């Protein structure tokens, strides 16, 4: 028992020796010295200045630094099943699916880069991630995959690059001519820029129709029609077209409506084939 009581005192002795050495080296403890009010005011002004700078930072750098969220299991399973049925791994590299959450919007959207298609980005709305049923989700993911495959074709990439370069050259020429006050000569490159933008938008609409044709061939015409009709019903603006995509109503009409030739008799268009190979 005596040995057990000696051990704590032996352990406390080195600590006391260290404290004595520190007091001898640094001197006795100094009393507390409160800061002057002027010093506190300076600190407060510096903190407020930093807060103002943070408030003026635009939102897009924060959005760019936002980490990519993990793909939900049900989305990954649907995408894997669609990609397996499309048999794309034999011809094209396996595209990666990226999942992000947006604060605004009515429906999830699928986006594929125009010039460098590397990933298929699914932008879901925060708080409304599970708004789509299985058929609508399959059509949405399949349309993104079809747009990815069409964007990888050399002819489509060449046309997109030429239109973008033409529009950029026309815009740059317009700026230079206006800078030199050659307003009459600046009309021609301005018209070229506008025509290039309109042609690029029209070409992107055509690629969307081709992507819908591929989706109808993969999933079937009836299932694709139900998915597009479901997306159009859930959308707040189903008749509003985008810059690079037609409206959901127009897409559903092209897939679901029967083809009526000049003689007036309706024919079924199932199954659909891609418009260009």
From TrEMBL:
Keyword terms: Membrane, Transmembrane, Transmembrane helix
Ranges that cross the membrane: 158-177, 183-200
The protein's name: Uncharacterized protein
UniProt organism field: Dictyobacter alpinus
């Amino acid at each position: 028992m005596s040995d057990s009581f000696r051990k704590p005192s032996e352990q406390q002795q080195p600590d006391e020796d260290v404290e004595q050495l520190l007091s001898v080296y640094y001197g006795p403890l100094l009393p507390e010295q409160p800061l002057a009010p002027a010093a506190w005011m300076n600190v407060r002004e510096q903190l407020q200045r930093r807060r103002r700078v943070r408030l003026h930072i635009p939102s897009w750098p924060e959005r760019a630094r936002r980490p990519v969220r993990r793909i939900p299991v049900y989305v990954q399973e649907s995408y894997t099943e669609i990609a397996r049925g499309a048999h794309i791994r034999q011809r094209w590299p396996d595209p990666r699916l990226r999942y992000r959450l947006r604060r605004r919007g009515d429906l999830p959207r699928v986006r594929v880069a125009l010039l460098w298609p590397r990933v298929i980005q699914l932008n879901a709305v925060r708080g409304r991630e599970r708004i789509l049923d299985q058929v609508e989700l399959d059509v949405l993911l399949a349309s993104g995959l079809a747009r990815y495959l069409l964007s990888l074709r050399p002819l489509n990439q060449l046309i997109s690059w030429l239109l973008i370069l033409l529009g950029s050259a026309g815009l740059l020429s317009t700026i230079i001519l206006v800078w030199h006050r050659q307003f009459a000569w600046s009309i021609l490159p301005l018209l070229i820029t506008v025509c290039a933008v309109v042609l690029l938008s029209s070409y992107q609409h055509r690629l969307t129709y081709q992507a819908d044709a591929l989706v109808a061939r993969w999933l079937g015409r009836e299932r694709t029609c139900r998915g597009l009709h479901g997306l159009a019903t859930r959308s707040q603006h189903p008749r509003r077209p985008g810059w690079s995509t037609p409206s959901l109503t127009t897409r559903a009409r092209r897939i679901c409506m029967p083809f009526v030739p000049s003689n007036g008799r309706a024919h079924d268009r199932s199954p659909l084939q891609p418009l260009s190979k």
